[in-house]
Design brief:
By secondary structure, this protein is mostly helical. The chain folds into two domains: 81 residues; 80 residues, no CATH class. 58% of the residues lie in helices and 0% in strands. It is built from eight helices and no strands. Helix 1 runs antiparallel to helix 2, helix 5 runs antiparallel to helix 6 and helix 6 runs parallel beside helix 8.
Length: 200
């Protein structure tokens, strides 16, 4: 009779599969310490081969030994080549990530746009600043259209940008080449979608 995995013992780290878990379980039964140590090294080598990387680092090797300890329920008595995670710390919940405080003027633009505009205001006049403003206006239009599916007037974007920057960034229609190119590309994409719908 076939035995389904759902009826078997739950794997601590399913990504390594049941075969590797059986190797770890076998290592726990080895009484000779040297043999157990060698078995552990072999298991880690197999685990490393399952997820090869271009360049092995100490951090990656550390993670493999950590995983071995976890799969053995921290009961494998061997000489680990590095300091592995402990059972007490493994069960600790992660530290809470603090939520950014402060209101956002317009939710459809979000905090990211506000921060980028603030950076642009501190930059000196020049090509780099102009290029950043181009990218900001393009992002603002994308964010606006994500909320308002119909359309957005270019003047609205420029007015919002002027308000956000307290008048430090004041651009007019056609001033930014990249912005106009983006508008043209969006129009062309919309035309292609209409043609596609008509044909099919």
């Amino acid at each position: 009779m076939m035995e389904y995995n759902t009826k078997k013992k739950r794997l601590p780290l399913p990504e390594y599969g049941r075969a590797v878990q059986k190797m770890v379980d076998h290592a726990l039964t080895i009484e000779n310490r040297e043999e157990r140590q060698q078995c552990a090294k072999t298991i880690v080598s197999i685990m490393d081969g399952m997820f090869p990387v271009t360049k092995e680092t100490g951090e990656i090797r550390q993670k493999l030994w950590d995983h071995l300890a976890i799969m053995s329920d921290f009961k494998l008595d061997i000489d680990y080549p590095c300091e592995v995670i402990r059972k007490e710390t493994f069960n600790e919940p992660p530290a809470r990530i603090p939520y950014l405080k402060g209101e956002v003027k317009n939710r459809h633009y979000g905090r990211f746009v506000e921060e980028m505009i603030a950076i642009a205001c501190t930059m000196e006049e020049g090509e780099e600043r102009n290029r950043l403003i181009e990218l900001i206006t393009i992002q603002m239009k994308k964010d606006y259209l994500a909320w308002n599916k119909d359309t957005v007037d270019n003047k609205q974007i420029f007015d919002d940008l002027r308000e956000y920057s307290n008048g430090q960034i004041d651009i007019q229609e056609g001033y930014i080449k990249g912005y106009q190119q983006h508008n043209n590309q969006m129009r062309n994409n919309q035309k292609r979608k209409k043609v596609f719908k008509k044909k099919y």
